[in-house]
Design brief:
single chain, mainly alpha, three-stranded antiparallel sheet, two-stranded parallel sheet, rod-shaped
């Protein structure tokens, strides 16, 4: 870091420079000790006193080597010729001018408006080149005194070393900015056992501070045993086994690791630190400043990488949720459409009542299992979309809007109701068909019952009339007419009896034929109704009735023929036969009425509605009226039965005419009377039971509708009405916890879910199989209730996680604030001490006294030192601009004069705000773009083989909005598959040709300065990161 304000550096021999810096260092040391580690030990003060006795030639040798290596490290980056001897190789000014172009970032021509002489032969040419050095430094606002061009040309060692030190301070450390570097070193090594950094020399001689500094930022490059030893862990002493012990070994290890693993040029040798009474402070500062530049930029770069990785992780999470939502919603919509189409088509529903009942059972099973599972999937899809939108809203991403018809709202409001409507229509069709088939079954059962009486009767009558024709009896009677009177009388009596019996059978048939014809006509009437041919039994029964009709016609013809033949021969026993015939007729009527009553009693009580039961009662009432009208018939039947019994003809009537005996008939009538009373009671109970079933169905439907509305309301409220983005995480958590309590109340006694459960139990107790008032079942409602609980719990967990992250970020901010306050206090105190000390030495105008803040504020210089102490990498010019902007802006708001970096200074609040912003990796689109730009630019400038320019600037910066594939690989190598993800979604805009140098070999374990392998040109792809940032922020 460097200062943009004009300053003057007085260059004198090394001894005077060291003496001048000594007082400054002493003040810094005193401040650092008082702020961090207490007073300087007495023994160390003694060592300071002994240092002055060391020969100055040692200082010159160390500084010469250190400054040479520092310069070569920068020249090597541009492929410039390196310095062999710092004094002789710089006498023509060319190497120093090339060095200034590399570290200053501007060419000599761009600042001084003229070029240097690349091949000076004469002294005047060399002097002109050296004059350009001082002109360039003035353009960079660095005034150098007590040295001129002749001192460089004449190789004045002391003054050349002083000039190099001034350049290092200006471009590498920050002019007179050792305090900030020392504070950063103290903060970085704090907490390591046995490491106490008070200065730039004696505190580093044992090597532990170097190792601690490396371990702080890159613990991976040190052996595990060395790290344990540094941290004072048990067994850490084993780190020294197998290698030389002591400070020199530790310093050697630190220098080797810094060079080989971190790319930090070895400006010093271990002997320059260990084998001396006191290391050279300037050389140490030059070397340690490389660690600051390395690690401070590394920390910032890691913060940028973390912000990019966080944004990518969020985008991938959104992609995952989006993909899962699209696949789940698409699959669910497909199922809804398929099922809706299936119900709308009214697929084959069966040709028998049993088949229709099986379809209803299958529908019931579907509602309990498949539909419940799909509704759970719908709730899961809703939860997925809620999680995605909540995350997008919380992270300022565009809210995902599904394609038309694919939103959860469309699934709930369009597709699901369409399914329910089609399903309800299908169920109604099944129920209607089941009801129709039940009526048809009843009608067919009645017809088949009648046919079961008609068909045997027809068969028996047909057999009787065809096998008992009286022709043989008549001829037999004629042939025996000439017999004796007694024989004739007996034969005549027997023949008459038989004929009369046969004639009686005919009249019995005539009395019965009306009954059976009425049964047949009733069967025809039942079949002539609107009986659907869908029912498989209708056609079969039609065929049976048709056969019975044909048989009845044939039987009647045979019977008439039988009657004519019998009447020709039958003259006898008219009264008895008439009585018998009367008895058979009356008995048949009574039997018909009894059959009618028994059929009515056997009619099934379906109980689908109260009206159906009442209609059944009314029909049964009409049937029982016919039964009550049998009273007169039964009296007459009783008289006829008594008459037949008196003459001993009952058994014969029963045997010959298949008539029911009077006693049996009477017992049957009494039994039917009792069954009528029982059936009337049964109908009354059925009516009340049906009323109860209707009531429990309505209660369950009401409870189900209430639960559905309540679940929908809580689901909407769990999204907080779209207010989530405007609420703090703790407020969101509080509202969701209250919502969870309300949800849990729904499952307790008298809660909404418990009401549904009780209504369902009431249905089961009442024997209700299907509820026509609502399509939901207790299983689907129970699943819906459980899914609501999962949804609320998931959103509560998301809120608690967000709250925990906020608390974690707050804790990190508090720790960062402590560090800022600590540095601020050190700098304000140090500025005051240094200022007072220098006034006592002579009160140089514009000297260090200007660093003192007014009322505990930071000056412009102290502000830059504070940034350095906290590891904030910022160019001097940018730091000056920011300081003036903050301090001047405040003064302007207060109505004061515009500050140019002077009085008033920067307050703690302003300093803390600036540092927090600088150290925090943002998450907005602009932050991520800035992170990519910084990485692309910094890595581009650090690459070998960048843009070449003769006397040009320090090129290598990439084109705007693009980043090299090589940079992506280097920076994001440790971030899992992030590189692959970025290259997959980051448009490739072309290729970039890079010249890369192979690393030079080492000689004798030391770096071969200025010696590298051949250049090789490689092509690497270049990617458009701006398009990529737009892509991830659309997720």
């Amino acid at each position: 870091m460097s200062s943009s304000s004009s300053s003057s550096s007085s260059l004198s021999p090394t001894s005077s420079t060291s003496s001048s810096l000594s007082s400054t260092t002493s003040a810094s040391v005193a401040t650092s000790q008082s702020s961090f580690t207490g007073s300087t030990p007495w023994g160390e003060r003694q060592r300071h006193a002994q240092v002055d006795a060391k020969t100055r030639s040692d200082w010159v040798a160390v500084q010469k080597k250190t400054f040479t290596r520092w310069a070569n490290a920068h020249l090597r980056r541009r492929g410039q010729t390196e310095i062999g001897d710092l004094f002789t190789d710089t006498s023509d000014g060319i190497r120093l001018l090339q060095l200034l172009e590399v570290i200053g970032g501007d060419s000599i021509y761009s600042l001084c408006n003229r070029k240097y002489n690349p091949a000076p032969k004469m002294r005047i040419h060399k002097l002109e080149n050296c004059n350009l050095i001082f002109e360039y430094l003035r353009k960079k606002e660095l005034q150098v005194t007590n040295i001129g061009s002749t001192d460089i040309v004449d190789t004045n060692e002391k003054l050349i070393l002083g000039l190099m030190w001034t350049i290092i301070l200006r471009f590498a450390v920050a002019e007179d900015g050792k305090q900030g570097l020392l504070l950063w070193l103290q903060r970085s090594t704090e907490g390591y056992p046995g490491v106490h950094v008070h200065n730039f020399d004696l505190s580093w001689m044992d090597g532990r501070a170097f190792l601690a500094l490396i371990h702080k930022y890159r613990p991976d490059v040190l052996p595990v045993q060395v790290a344990d030893w540094l941290l004072g862990k048990e067994g850490g002493g084993e780190a020294r086994e197998g290698r030389e012990e002591g400070p020199k070994a530790d310093v050697t290890l630190a220098f080797q690791v810094a060079r080989d693993r971190l790319g930090i040029a070895a400006l010093l040798d271990p002997e320059d630190v260990v084998d001396t009474a006191k290391p050279d402070e300037k050389s140490m500062i030059a070397y340690l400043s490389q660690f600051f530049n390395k690690f401070a930029s590394l920390t910032r770069k890691q913060a940028l990488v973390d912000s990019i990785v966080k944004a990518i992780t969020l985008a991938r999470k959104h992609d995952q949720l989006l993909s899962l939502y699209n696949s789940s919603s698409s699959s669910l919509k497909g199922w809804l459409r398929t099922r809706t189409h299936q119900w709308q088509q009214h697929e084959e529903t069966g040709r028998t009542t049993a088949e229709v009942k099986a379809k209803l059972d299958a529908l019931h099973t579907y509602r309990q299992e498949e539909k419940v599972q799909q509704k759970a999937r719908l709730l899961e899809v809703t939860k997925l979309l809620g999680q995605l939108r909540t995350s997008q809203r919380s992270n300022n991403r565009p809210i995902f809007i599904p394609e038309e018809g694919m939103s959860d709202q469309a699934l709930w409001d369009v597709d699901w109701p369409a399914l329910e409507a089609a399903e309800g229509a299908y169920e109604k069709a099944l129920i209607d068909k089941y009801a129709r088939f039940s009526v048809i079954d009843f009608a067919l059962t009645k017809v088949q019952n009648k046919l079961s009486k008609i068909e045997p009767w027809l068969d028996s009558r047909t057999a009787h009339f065809t096998s008992h024709l009286p022709s043989s009896s008549s001829s037999s009677s004629s042939s025996s007419s000439s017999s004796s009177s007694s024989s004739s009388s007996c034969s005549s009596s027997s023949s008459i009896s038989g004929l009369e019996q046969r004639l009686a059978s005919y009249y019995a048939f005539k009395g019965q034929v009306d009954v059976y014809e009425s049964l047949l006509k009733e069967s025809q009437r039942l079949l002539s109704g609107h009986l659907s041919e869908e029912h498989a039994g209708v056609g079969e029964t039609h065929d049976r009735v048709a056969v019975a009709e044909g048989t009845m016609t044939t039987l009647k013809e045979i019977a008439e023929r039988f009657k004519v033949e019998v009447e020709e021969s039958l003259k006898l026993e008219k009264e008895l036969e008439a009585a018998a015939e009367r008895y058979v007729l009356l008995a048949g009527k009574v039997g018909f009425v009894i059959d009618e009553v028994e059929e009515a009693i056997a009619e099934p009580i379906l109980g689908n509605s109260v009206e159906e039961v009442e209609e059944l009662e009314e029909r049964f009432k009409n049937v029982t009226e016919n039964f009550k009208n049998l009273k007169e018939v039964m009296l007459e039947l009783s008289r006829v039965g008594e008459f037949l019994t008196k003459h001993g003809r009952v058994e014969r009537v029963e045997e010959e005419r298949q008539a029911t005996p009077p006693a049996v008939l009477l017992a049957t009538v009494q039994k039917v009377e009792k069954r009528i009373e029982e059936h009337i009671a049964e109908l009354e109970r059925a009516r009340e039971e049906t009323r109860r079933k209707v009531r429990v169905r309505e209660e369950f439907a009401e409870a189900a509708r209430g639960l559905n509305a309540w679940v929908q309301q809580l689901s909407e409220r769990s999204n907080l009405g779209g207010r989530r983005s405007s609420l703090q995480p703790q407020d969101v958590t509080k509202e969701l916890e209250a919502l969870r309590d309300e949800y849990e109340m729904g499952g307790r006694e008298r809660g909404r879910m418990m009401v549904v459960e009780e209504a369902s139990e009431a249905q089961e107790a009442a024997g209700v199989v299907a509820n026509g008032f609502v399509t939901d079942t207790v299983y689907s409602l129970r699943k819906e209730y459980e899914e609501l609980g999962k949804l609320i719990e998931a959103r509560l967990n998301d809120s608690v996680t967000a709250q925990a992250m906020l608390m974690s970020q707050t804790a990190e901010s508090d720790e960062q604030m402590k560090e800022v306050l600590r540095v601020f206090q050190v700098l304000t105190t140090a500025a005051t001490v240094v200022g007072e000390g220098e006034r006592e030495e002579g009160g140089r105008e514009g000297g260090r006294a200007g660093a003192r803040g007014e009322g505990g504020c930071l000056t412009q210089k102290a502000f830059k030192e504070g940034l350095q102490a906290l590891g904030v990498v910022l160019e001097d010019s940018e730091a000056d601009v920011q300081y003036k902007k903050v301090v001047g802006g405040r003064r302007g708001r207060e109505g004061g004069r515009e500050m140019g970096g002077g009085g008033g200074g920067m307050t703690l609040a302003e300093f803390s705000s600036f540092v927090t912003t600088a150290l925090t990796a943002g998450s907005s689109r602009e932050d991520i773009l800035g992170a990519f730009k910084t990485i692309a630019t910094s890595m581009g400038q650090g690459r070998e083989g960048g843009k070449e320019g003769g006397q040009g600037g320090g090129g290598g910066g990439g084109r705007g909005g693009v980043i090299s594939g090589e940079v992506l690989n280097l920076v994001f190598e440790a971030q899992g598959d992030c590189v692959a993800y970025m290259k997959e979604h980051m448009p490739e805009t072309g290729v970039e040709k890079l010249k890369k140098r192979k690393q030079g070999k080492e000689r004798g374990g030391e770096e071969a300065d200025g010696e590298e392998g051949e250049e090789e040109e490689v092509e690497v792809p270049v990617y458009d990161y701006m398009s990529f940032v737009s892509y991830i922020f659309e997720r």
